[in-house]
Design a protein that fits this description.
The structure is a single chain. By secondary structure, this protein is an alpha/beta fold. 27% of the residues lie in helices and 26% in strands. The chain has 2 domains: 94 residues, Translation factors (Elongation Factor Tu (Ef-tu), domain 3), CATH 2.40.30; 172 residues, Rossmann fold. It has 8 helices and 13 strands. Strands 10-11-9-8-7-12-13 form a 7-stranded mixed sheet. It has a 6-stranded antiparallel sheet with strand order 4-3-6-1-2-5, with helices on one face. About 2% of the residues have low confidence.
């Protein structure tokens, strides 16, 4: 008898659960990887915000004068700043104190994310001392933008700015906004800057005075600048900024300087003509015209608190601007004049 046929070998079918095991394991590993990346990734920089702090990178730090710092900060995803006057708040992490600083200009630099601050090292100033010790590549905590005062273009005839020390920063911001970053400068308003420093060595650095000197040279009928120092300390009565030579007045800003700013004296030939007319008999004198209306003048005062008090009066107890006093108060602001304290 022939032997019985050997049984044919067949593969044992695997259960359905075993077939889905590699897919489940792969999905689990992928999910865990994504979860680890999400929770363990470094946090993305938070955008600049007026209510909360974000890190800003120091890209430049110099000391143009013995007691000041000029810093450039790269801000985290900043939105365009508002119109002047706006500030950036900086926090000292050691004592959790914040102080506002006025950027000299709007956003600039690579990517349009940098601002420049001119900071005075104040005695007992925790934030300024903290900033003076920061180095390029380190970060500081900032928030912004917030306004110091609201700039309103009311068709002023004159805007007269009084500043001392680093108080020139808001005015540099305003002039840069109106003249240097605008294709059309103001057509009606005349701007006058009276700035005082203790000595020539403490005058604003070329990064600040240079653009203002060029502005005065280009539009002398729209912008004028006068510099004052408490003492020349044996130095010359001129201050060189690039090719510009700026005259220094060895005194503090006086009442006569304010009067000249708001009502400049006529050219010499017109003063001589006025003296001749005064000698003529009444019937030979030309008919007197009506007295022109008083100019609309905006006075802006920015600087150390003692300077603001001397020229515009003290602030109120709640740190608001308070009533107008000081030298400007004695001049009588009256209708058409406005005084603001920065």
């Amino acid at each position: 008898m022939p032997p019985p046929p050997s049984p044919t070998a067949h593969a044992v079918p695997s259960p359905p659960k075993l077939r889905r095991l590699p897919l489940a394991l792969g999905t689990t590993v992928l999910g865990l990887s994504l979860a680890s990346w999400y929770f363990l990734r470094p946090p993305s920089p938070k955008a600049l915000d007026p209510a909360s702090y974000s890190p800003a990178l120091i890209t430049s730090h110099t000391h143009p004068t013995p007691r000041t710092s000029l810093l450039k900060l790269r801000l985290p995803s900043p939105s365009p700043p508002p119109e002047p006057f706006y500030v950036l708040w900086v926090k000292s992490p050691q004592v959790q104190i914040e102080r506002p600083y006025t950027p000299l200009r709007g956003l600039e630099g690579e990517g349009g994310e940098e601002v420049e601050l001119w900071v005075r090292h104040e005695r007992g100033g925790e934030v300024s001392r903290y900033l003076s010790g920061r180095k390029v590549g380190e970060e500081v905590e900032v928030r912004g933008w917030t306004r110091s005062i609201q700039w309103q273009d009311k068709d002023w005839d004159e805007v007269i700015m009084l500043s001392g020390g680093t108080g020139i920063a808001p005015f540099h911001q305003l002039l840069h906004h109106l003249f240097l970053s605008s294709p059309v400068p103001p057509q009606k308003t005349r701007f006058t800057l009276l700035h005082g420093s203790r000595s020539p060595s403490e005058l604003p650095p070329p990064e600040i005075l240079g653009p203002l000197a060029a502005l005065q040279q280009r539009w002398p009928e729209r912008f004028r600048m006068r510099l004052f120092v408490d003492e020349l300390a044996g130095g010359p009565a001129v201050h060189s900024v690039g090719d510009e030579r700026l005259l220094l007045n060895e005194r503090r800003i006086q009442l006569d300087d304010l009067l000249r700013a708001v009502d400049p004296p006529p050219p010499p030939r017109f003063r001589f003509l006025g003296r001749v007319m005064a000698l003529l008999p009444p019937f030979m004198s030309p008919r007197q015209e009506e007295k022109p209306k008083r100019n609309k003048v905006l006075w802006l005062v920015s600087g150390p608190e003692e300077m603001v008090e001397a020229y515009a009066g003290p602030r109120a107890r709640d740190l608001s601007e308070g009533e107008v006093g000081g030298v400007l108060g004695s001049m009588g602001t009256g209708k058409g004049w406005e005084v603001r304290k920065l």
